[in-house]
Design brief:
The complex is a heterodimer of chains A (592) and B (389).
Chain A: E1 3-5, E2 12-16, E3 31-35, H1 41-45, H2 52-60, H3 64-72, H4 78-84, H5 88-91, H6 104-117, E4 133-137, H7 141-152, E5 156-161, H8 169-172, H9 181-193, E6 197-200, H10 206-215, E7 218-221, E8 225-228, E9 241-243, H11 244-252, E10 262-266, H12 270-281, E11 285-289, H13 301-309, E12 313-315, E13 318-326, E14 329-342, E15 348-362, E16 364-367, E17 371-373, E18 389-390, E19 393-397, E20 402-405, E21 412-414, H14 425-445, H15 450-455, H16 467-470, H17 506-509, H18 522-529, H19 543-547, E22 553-555, E23 562-564, H20 574-578, E24 584-588
Parallel strand pairs in A: 4-5, 4-7, 5-6, 7-21, 9-16, 10-11, 10-16, 11-12
Antiparallel strand pairs in A: 1-2, 3-24, 8-17, 13-14, 14-15, 18-19, 19-20, 20-21, 22-23
Helix pairs in contact in A: 2-3, 2-18, 3-6, 4-6, 6-18, 7-14, 11-12
Chain B: E1 2-6, H1 7-17, E2 22-25, H2 32-44, E3 50-53, H3 57-69, E4 74-79, H4 80-95, E5 101-106, H5 120-123, E6 131-134, H6 138-155, E7 159-164, E8 172-176, H7 180-186, E9 203-204, H8 210-242, E10 249-252, E11 259-263, H9 267-278, E12 285-290, E13 292-294, H10 298-305, E14 310-315, H11 325-334, E15 343-347, H12 357-368, E16 377-379
Parallel strand pairs in B: 2-3, 2-4, 4-5, 5-7, 6-7, 11-12, 11-14, 14-15, 15-16
Antiparallel strand pairs in B: 1-8, 6-13, 10-12
Amino acid sequence: METELSLKKNLYMARTSVTTESNKTGSWRFLRPKYEEKTSPCSTACPAGEDIARIEMLITQGAFKEAWETILRENPLPGVCGRVCYHPCEGRCNRREFDTSIAVHTMERFLADTAARNETKPALERLPPKGKRVAIIGSGPAGLSAAWFLNMLGYDSEIFEAMPEAGGLLRWGIPAYRLPATVLSNEVARLESQGVRIRVGEAVTASRFEELKTSYDAVFLGCGYWRNRALNIPGEPGQGVEDGMSFLRQLRQGAKPDVTGVSAVIGGGNTAIDVARSIIRLGGRAVIIYRRRREDMPAFDEEIESALEEGAELRELLAPVQIAAIGSDCILTVQQMKVEGLDRDGRGKIVTAGTSLVEISVQRVFVATGTTAVEAWHEPPPAAEAGDQHNASVHLYLSHCTLQQEQQGTPIIYGGDLTNTDKNVTQAIASGKQAAMALDTLFQSGADAVRERLSACLVGEGPSLSMEIYMNGPRKERKPHIVSYQEINTDYFQFEPRVIQPRLLIEERTSSFDEIELKISANTAMREAGRCFNCGICNNCDNCYLFCPDVCILRGRDMTERHIDYDYCKGCGLCVVECPRNAMTLGEEEKL
Amino acid sequence: MKKVLEGSHAVAEAVRLARVQVISAYPITPQTHIVEILSDYVTTGKMVAKYLRVESEHSCMAALIGAQSSGVRTFTATSSQGLALMHELLHWASGARLPIVMAEVNRALAPGWNIWNDQTDSLAQRDTGWMQFYCEDGQEVLDTTIQAYRLAEIVNLPAMVVLDAFYLSHTYEPVDVPEQDEVDRFLPPYKPAFILDTKHPYSLSPLVTPNAYMEMRYDIAMAMDDALEQFDRVEEEFAKIFDRRYGAVEAIDCDDADIVIVTSGTVTSTGRLLLEELRPRGEKVGVLKIKLFRPFPVEAVRRALGKAKKVVVVDRNFSFGASGIFAQEVRAAICNVPGHPPIFGYIAGLGGRDITVKLLEEIYFDVKGSSAPRKESIWVGLQEVNRAT
C-alpha cells in the first residue's frame, strides 16, 4: 500500500500501484460458467435439421447469403420448402409461449428468392472425390437431395427421370399457385450448376434397374408413389371417375380440363385439397368428401383453411359406397359415419351410423385417397423379413430410408415416399440426406458403422440429421440439449407481432393459378428474424461482458469470440443468468 | 443575450456553456426538465457530450465518479428521494476529491409523497463534503452553475447548486445567457489533478489504514476552508467579465436594522418585498440572504448580524429533534461572539406551502413583540387538522 502526497495543495490522496492481479480470485470458484451452445427446438423439429436459430441470426445481420448457405448445408431446396413445407419448426418455436412463433418458412422463402434474384452462387465445402458413382432413380425431392448431398461428400451421381422435366412431385403433383414452375426450375438449375447430373426422359424399367446395379457402385430409389389407390367400390373405374394425381399432372402439363358443375373430391390428404382448389380455379365447384372429420385430415391445416376460404365445401363423415353414371352426371352414394371411441392410433374410431345411404349428384368424381408405388420392385424389402443382417446380406431400416445389400452385391437404398412414414417434401429431402450419409459411411467404414455414425449426427433428439455435423462443421460442438422456453431470459425480449405475409385477394386466387403468397421486403424479413430468441446460440449480444462484475469476459479482436478468464472468474453465474438465449452453462467446478 | 428562461433551462444553458463532457441522470420531478433538455442538446449536437442513461441515482453518481476519475467534466441533477439514494456516493465523490457539479432541486421527502419545495433533502446532505449554493433566481442559478465548476476544480471538491422546486425550477424569468467565448475565458478546460490512465496504471481509493485516513480528512477540511476564500476570488473574476456578483451572503438593509431576517433560496425575494413594505413605515428591519451554506461563511454572517438586536431565521426545513437547520448554523456561527443577539427560529413553507410577504410580516411583528424566543422553533401557518383517527 502506498499513499502519495499530491503536489497540489490540500490533496493528500490514497492511491496504489500495487496490482491485485496476483490475487487470483478464480480460486474462490466452485461453480464454473462456460460458453456452451445448445440445440434450438425448431431445428430438431425440422425434418431437414436446418440450423434455424443461426439462420435467423444471420438474417438480422443482413447476411442473407450466409443464411441461405446455412440452409443449403442441410436442404438443397429452400425455395421449394419455403413454400410447401408444413413448417413443424414453427410448431415448436419457443417464441410461441411468449407471443407467436417466428415465421420461419417466410424467412426461408425470402432467402431463396433473394438468392435467385441475385443469381447468388453458394460457396460450400465439398469433400474430395471418392471415385464412386451412384445412380439415382427419380428427380423428386428425395432424389435431388440425395444427389446434392452425395455431391457434397465427393460422389459422382446421375439422376434418371422418366418425365421430360426434373422435379417429380414438385413439378407434376403440386399446383402452381403453391409452387410456381420457375421457382423449381431455378433450384434445379442451381443444383445442376453445382454438379448434379439429371437425365430426363429416361425411365428406369426393371431390366434397366438390373443394369444400373452392375454399372454403378450404388443405386438410390426415390421414384415416389404415383399409383392412385383405388376405392374398390362399384363404379370405379367408370365414366366421370378420375384419379387426383393424374388430374394434377395434366394441369402441370398445361391442360385446362372442363370442370364445370360440381365435382366430388374423395379424400382428406393434400392431394384432395390441391384437386379441389384447382377445380375452383378452373371455374368449377368442389365438394370434398371425407370419411372422417376435419381434425383427422392428413392435409396441412393451412391448406384446408385456404381451400374453404376459396369456396370448397367439406362434407365430413361420409364414406363412398358406389358411383353410378346417369347420363353425363354421377350419383355418388355415401354412407353416413360417426365417431365411436378411439382407434389404435388414438384417432377417433369411425363406424357406420345407421344404414341409410345418401346420394349426391355431381358431374364427376375425383379419387384422391392416397397413392402407392407404381411397380412392386420399387418397394423396399419388408422389415418383417429380417433384422439388420441375415444370410450375409445387409438390411438397414433407418428412420428415413432402407439400405439393402445382398451378399457383396451393389448397395440399394430406398428413400422418399417409398420408405417415409410421413410422406411429404421435407421428409423426402431428409431421406435423400440420410441416404447420402449412410452410403458414405457404408463405403468408408462398412455397414456395421452406419447406425452409430448416423446417430452421432442427430439434431437434438432427432430423428432429423445434420450434414454439417456429419462433415464436422461448427454445429458438431453444439450440445444436443434442447433449449426450453423456461431457459430463455425473456426480460430481454419485447412483444412484437409476427410478420403477415401478403397474399392475393380471394377473387384473384379463385381465378388464376398465380402464386398466392407474395414477397416480403428485406426490412420486413430482418425485423421478423429479429424476433427470434436464437435459442441456444451466441449472437454476440455481450450481456455476459456487460454484466460480469469481475471483467472476466475476454473478447477477441474481431469481437466475435468470447472467453472466460478463469484466473479471476469467481463463478458468480451472472453471465449465465443474463444470457438471454441459454448459450452459456453453469456447472460445478471439478474437484482437484 | 437576454432570454426568457425557465429556471431548469437556465441550469441546462450553464451546463452547455461549461462544456460538460459527461452527463448522467435519472429523472425525478421537479428536476427532470434540466436533464430532459440536456439530453435534447446532446442528441441534436447542440452540445458535445456523452449522456449516460442509468437505472438509479445511485448508479448515476457512481457513473460520474468513474467518468470524472478519467479526467472529464461531469454533471447531474437530482432531487429529494433521488439525492437520498445517492447519499453513499456523495461521500465517495468528495472523499475521492472529484469536482463533480450537481443541480439539486429542493423538494420535500416522502411520505407523504410531495413534489413541492422543501430544503430538507439537500440540507440532510450537509456533512457529505459537498459545497452547497442556495440560489434566488434564474440568473443566479445560471451564473452559480458556471462558477461552481471553476471553484470545484480549484479546490477539488464536488459542488451542489441548489434551487427551489417550482418557485425557481419551473418559473420563467428574463435571464442573460452569456456567450460561449465569455464563458470560455472565465472557465478554462478542466485540468484534472489526477486521472486514471491505462498507460500508467494505479488504483485510487484503496484501503487506507489509521495511519493515513485522518490526514486525508484533514485535507478535505482544509480544502473546504480554502473554498471560502476561493469563492470570493472566483466571484471577482466572474464579475470582471459578466459584471454580476452575489456574495457568500448578501446583507440587505442590515446596517441600521434592529431585526434581521435570515433567508435562503427564493424566500429572499419575498424578504426584499417585505423590506419595501416595512421600511417606509419606519420599521428597522433587514434581510440576510445566505447563499453559501457549505463551506459556511461564519465571518460574513457574524459581520452582518453584529449590529442587530434580534435575529430571525426562517427555515423551510427541519431537523427533527433539533430545530431549523439554518437557525442551527447561524446560532453556531455567532454563539462565541460576546453579546450576540438572540436567535428566533421560525419554520415555514414546508412541502411547498407558500411563504408570503404577509407571513414574513407576521413573523417580524411576533419577534418585535417578544423580548426572548418563546421556543427554539416556532412553526407558523399551521392549520387545524383532524387527528381523531
